[in-house]
Amino acid sequence: MKRVYADLHLCPDIGGREQISRIMAKASRLGYGLVAVPFPKFSEEQIRQTREICREAGVDFASRVNFRSRTPEELLASLRKLRRRFEVIAVTCESKGVARQAAKDRRVDLLNFPQPDFRRAFFDAAEAELASNCLASLEIDMKPLLTQAGPARTRLLSNLRREVATAKEFHVPIVISSGVSDELLMRKPKDMAALASLCDLNGVHALEAVSKNPVAIVKRNREKLGPKFVAPGIRVIRRGKDC
Amino acid sequence: MKRVKRRYLAVEIDSCETFNSHEFMDAVWNAVSKLFGEYGASQTGLSLIGYDETEKLAVIRTWHKTLEMVRTALASMTQIGNKQLALHVLVVSGTIKALHRRLEEKPVQ
What we know:
The structure holds two protein chains of two kinds. Chain A is an alpha/beta fold. Chain A contains ten helices and nine strands. Chain A has one domain: Alpha-Beta Barrel (TIM Barrel), CATH 3.20.20. Chain A has helices at 17-30, 44-57, 72-82, 96-104, 125-133, 143-147, 151-169, 189-196, 203-210, 212-225, and strands at residues 5-7, 32-38, 60-67, 88-92, 110-112, 137-141, 174-177, 229-231, 234-235. Chain A has a seven-stranded parallel β-sheet, with helices on both faces. A two-stranded antiparallel sheet of chain A has the order 8-9. In chain A, strand 2, helix 2 and strand 3 (60-67) form a beta-alpha-beta unit. Chain B has helices at 21-44, 67-76, 96-105; strands at residues 6-14, 47-52, 57-63, 79-80, 83-84, 86-93. Chain B contains three helices and six strands, in the order E-H-E-E-H-E-E-E-H. Chain B has a single domain, classed as 2-Layer Sandwich (Alpha-Beta Plaits). Chain B is α+β, with helices and mostly antiparallel strands. The chains are: A alpha/beta, B alpha+beta. Chain A binds chain B through residues 29-30, 145-147, 149, 183-188, 190-192, 194-195, 197-198, 203, and chain B through 14-15, 34-35, 68, 71-72, 74-76, 78, 84-86, 88-89, 109.
């Protein structure tokens, strides 16, 4: 079966229809079958428009929301309100409390750690253990790797390598995303996997990080958000009086 | 003596600007050296086989063992001088003949 490649973090200007069209056409041309775009919390109309554009471009679209909560309580409130409105939930972990809460909550799909700030690298063994018991994956954006140079990139690579080693140790799935808003920073899925090899991901794991892992997240969530879902492993097959 | 395998890469240059073959190859060497150091770069055996400025297509050769290094370095390139660009590897092949055949087979985009 042909592998489906996914980029779960494309960041076009969601107000500009033209830019979204260009980016989606490029994603399709580069070989992506599934893309996700982060939206503000209440943006049904924009999601509908973007879905339409993606259909025209020939790529599958998943809606995504990024939570930048300051406290665990704020994160829980946002999750309660919005989990059923989006197909992918990502949490940008800017404090240890939020990172821990996100890792142990089964409603969170992606844990994102702001890379330029090394003091906010909260993905340690404790965090990885919590994430491995739940459904959260570690998301690594490739944008900083492309935009930084010199010592900053060296530090970034060292940090990423440490995070990847921790994720591997605790079997936390890794998702490689682009995180870009500029077309010239978009790369083919296999080139993204090659870049991921800089973080000590081997060929197989790197390809899974741009295909199997992100696709599994979207598939799982679509199933959950569907009308037939009851609980994991249980779904409605038929309704009616003869059941 | 053991035969050393080679790999040929067809690379698409995605940019509004144009570059000559020297500018392009210097930038590739720079990118490889930046990421893997001069020692790593010296192991890649990089050479430019063909360059079409109008089609924005380059064919470069490297050793089989260093293919991933070169691919990573190409993906990490974002500019030549002050001109922005992106490089996309279209086809990788073991012979130039197969490379051209597969390039022709690729659907026009």
